[in-house]
């Protein structure tokens, strides 16, 4: 006699996912997800925030919270780890309502989804944490009317619900809403914190990488851990041959993947713009751009960073930065790349005229 697999209420066969299925799924995840810390202990470089949150959890008195700060610093990761710690994997689904930018962010969500979730009584609460959690990720995308409506909902359901609002910029959140939350500012991750986390991934994935490539990754990421992993994974894949054996990730690969000119190219760009006549400089810059597949936006950023190391008169620096910002603005509005490239060279040359000679620090 054969036994049929059990049926769900809708008549579909229920197949239990084996742990090896779960392992395979995990293997296929992008590294940013695969290495998203699942516990608060694993969240790196935000020690003050984690220790404060821990105290709140231990005391069973979680306030409404606002997490804000730049991308890839651990805001979403931290609240998910908190939720897991509070409820465990089993009750997570019943106790947590997670809304992010992919959901509708209008007044209807507040009126319907959030209100319904917050007002229904919880059956799965444990004795200590008898409140539910509403996570409003990327809340800067919520309409003003929705934010206004939320003020009332937060107050009304404080008895059984806590809210965690997550945003990149606190100033985009309604001040009345802000005053109802305890604020936590996530700073860009420090180079040391990035290195610590990077080492974990490098070891787990057996990545071979030059020391200066690690340095470049840490510098170019500017505190964004997501960016680090999103650059490391394709670099590692690119070095993996058909045999599955990976070669070493080099500094040039990191720069290429980030889309930044390598230091040697930046030096060539600087030399031609500073020393050559305008026509030669335009041709040389165009050639470097074509050879390296660079966009003017990347070059503008590299020039601005490079000139930070030069001693310039205030008038010259102002002319330089104003000019480069203007070009960046025009580019973002659809300005012609070739014309704006000539413009950028003109901006640097004019700043150097004002300076009347250049001294590197
Ligand atoms: N503090 C951290 N410790 C360890 N890994 C981190 C940390 N911050 C970010 N990461 C890594 O970067 C990925 C993205 O992090 P997360 O989603 O928490 O960023 P975020 O701060 O919510 O950014 P955004 O503002 O863009 O939503 C995570 O999956 C994880 O791999
Ligand atoms: Mg996030």
UniProtKB/TrEMBL annotation:
One of its GO terms (cellular component) is Ctf18 RFC-like complex. GO terms for biological process: DNA repair; DNA strand elongation involved in DNA replication. It is found in: Nucleus. Keywords: ATP-binding, DNA replication, Nucleotide-binding, Nucleus. Gene3D superfamilies: 1.10.8.60, 1.20.272.10, P-loop containing nucleotide triphosphate hydrolases. Pfam families: AAA, Rep_fac_C. Signal peptide: none annotated. GO terms for molecular function: ATP binding; ATP hydrolysis activity; DNA binding; DNA clamp loader activity. Residues 61-208 form the AAA+ ATPase domain. Residues 1-23 are annotated as: Disordered. It comes from the Eukaryota. Belongs to the activator 1 small subunits family. NCBIfam families: PRK00440.1 (NF001679). This is AAA+ ATPase domain-containing protein. It comes from Magnusiomyces paraingens.
